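Researcher: I'd like a candidate sequence for this fold, 565 residues long. If you have to choose between options at a position, lean toward the conservative one.
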């Protein structure tokens, strides 16, 4: 025993005190390699380790990749690359498997440890082998018991490709992947703003049926996107597919809201659906092949999708907006140089911004009372306009900057709409332009309109179906315009069969016209009469809820009627 102690002193150094020794340990965790420097030392400032008494320590051969305690003789054993085990008492560090660490056995006899496994040895015993990836506690008597493979709980992993999606609740916030064909995960109901914006790899996207909304710029700038299923989407927000140049077809059969510039600058050549559309933004298909070549692609002078008329700028002459059209889209007829007259059907509800801008030959424009909304500058640049009928159901009066047309002499103000104070102004750089005197029919019992309080309106004539109150008379004295009672130009007429006549108000006001006997006299929507056969009837003009009547007698022959012309 004494001899053994002497040998151990020599191995430890003078007076049995060991020298400081630092060991680097290598761990692999979640793909990252972490190096930890650990000091195994004896002496001042370090924790002392008591060596057990006993026979000489011997070192057993270790498999490649395993770390064993050093032999007491100090003979260095082979260490695997990148791995270093801590030194045992009076020994050199032995081999350890990559990413695994084993403590020295007190008895000095090292046992095999499987790669990647760290099993603690019980007191006074040999370390027992542990299964790969499993660390088992020591059993009774200190013997380390083997654990079945997979007993340790595995780390949670993402489903293939799911890591590319940033999802919050039912909103897809962002797609970060580079796949060409993408399937959006089930449960997503909304594609967030800019979620796929500018993705150069994207070619096709499959949306689950739950998706109801595609937000602003969600796919904007995806220049290689060719295919996406939109038939169940209810809302497509502004610029959602802007500049998707490879996207040529869309199905919008469930779409209720379509934001401005939704497909602006895209490659759309064919679109269907929109029967359920309730709200439409400006310039949805502007600067697309569909808008630029619609007459070739659809074989018509009018481009209609569902209840929307998107384009008609190739039309000429007289155009009647077809029944079923509810919205005339922005810029639809812009620049139609040969368009002379436009008549809306009873289905039209909305006319958007600049819809008929710069139609230089346009003379007549007729709104039915079904129109409730008209955008700004709908007739700007229509310098030959002479006959205008506005809907009585308009909620807001459009700015009539088309009033630079001096040939338009009469305006009828709708009863229910708000009227801007600059209604008849057309500003140049040097100030407002006076277009000359107008006959203006105003709704009864209204306050004096602000646009009439301009110094250059002094020659206007103001007409009303009711007696003017004190405020109107005072304003007429102050601003110079004249007040008149509204009346039909004729209250009795005699016509011969086949004869035609135009019945009108003294102000040129627009009204609803009906005949009490169409078999005797027919009347069109602008007061045009056609005598059919001998008889008597009355023609009724209704404006602001008040009726005006004209008695018509048809007698004589067609020859007599011809002689009158």
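Model: Candidate sequence:
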């Amino acid at each position: 025993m004494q001899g053994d102690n002497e040998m151990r002193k020599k191995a430890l150094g003078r007076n049995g005190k060991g020298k400081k020794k630092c060991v680097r340990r290598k761990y692999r965790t979640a793909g990252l390699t972490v190096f930890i420097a650990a000091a195994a030392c004896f002496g001042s400032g370090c924790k002392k380790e008591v060596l057990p008494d006993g026979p000489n320590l011997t070192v057993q051969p270790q498999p490649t990749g395993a770390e064993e305690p050093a032999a007491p003789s100090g003979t260095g054993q082979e260490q695997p690359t990148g791995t270093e085990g801590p030194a045992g008492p009076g020994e050199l560090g032995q081999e350890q498997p990559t990413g695994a660490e084993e403590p020295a056995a007190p008895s000095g006899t090292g046992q095999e440890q499987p790669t990647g496994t760290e099993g603690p040895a019980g007191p006074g015993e040999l370390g027992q082998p542990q299964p790969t990836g499993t660390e088992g506690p020591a059993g009774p008597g200190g013997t380390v018991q083997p654990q079945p493979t997979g007993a340790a709980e595995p780390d949670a992993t993402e489903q293939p490709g799911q890591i590319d999606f940033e999802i919050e609740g039912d909103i897809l916030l962002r797609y970060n992947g580079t796949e060409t064909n993408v399937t959006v995960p089930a449960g997503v109901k909304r594609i967030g703003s800019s979620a796929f914006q500018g993705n150069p790899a994207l070619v096709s996207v499959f949306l689950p049926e739950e998706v109801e909304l595609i937000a602003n710029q969600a796919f904007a700038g995806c220049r290689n996107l060719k295919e996406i299923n939109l038939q169940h989407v209810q809302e497509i927000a502004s610029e959602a597919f802007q500049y998707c140049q490879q996207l040529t077809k869309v199905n919008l059969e469930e779409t209720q809201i379509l934001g401005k510039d939704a497909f602006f600058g895209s490659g759309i050549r064919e679109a269907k659906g929109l029967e359920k559309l309730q709200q439409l933004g400006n310039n949805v298909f502007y600067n697309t092949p569909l808008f630029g070549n619609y007459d070739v692609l659809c074989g018509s002078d009018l481009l209609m999708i569902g209840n929307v008329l998107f384009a008609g700028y190739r039309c000429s002459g007289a155009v009647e907006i077809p029944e079923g059209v509810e919205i005339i889209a922005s810029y639809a007829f812009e620049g139609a140089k040969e368009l002379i007259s436009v008549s809306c059907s009873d289905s039209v509800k909305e006319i958007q911004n600049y819809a008929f801008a710069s139609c230089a030959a346009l003379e007549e424009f007729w709104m039915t009372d079904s129109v409730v909304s008209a955008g700004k500058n709908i007739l700007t640049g229509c310098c030959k306009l002479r006959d205008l009928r506005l809907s009585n159901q308009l909620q807001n009066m459009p700015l009539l900057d088309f009033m630079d047309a001096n040939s338009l002499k009469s305006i009828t103000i709708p009863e229910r709409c708000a009227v801007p104070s600059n209604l008849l102004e057309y500003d140049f750089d040097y100030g407002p332009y006076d277009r000359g005197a107008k006959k203006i029919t105003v709704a009864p019992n209204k306050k004096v309109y602000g646009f009439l309080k301009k110094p250059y309106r002094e020659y206007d004539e103001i007409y009303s179906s009711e007696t003017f109150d004190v405020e109107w008379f005072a304003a007429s004295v102050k601003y110079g315009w004249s007040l008149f009672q509204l009346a039909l130009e004729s209250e009795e007429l005699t016509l011969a069969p086949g004869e035609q006549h135009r019945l009108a108000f003294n102000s040129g006001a627009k009204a609803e016209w009906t005949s009490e006997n169409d078999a005797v006299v027919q009347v069109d929507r602008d007061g045009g009469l056609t005598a059919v056969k001998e008889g008597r009837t009355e023609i009724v003009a209704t404006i602001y809820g008040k009726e005006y009547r004209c008695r018509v007698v048809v007698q004589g022959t067609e020859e007599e009627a011809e002689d009158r012309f």
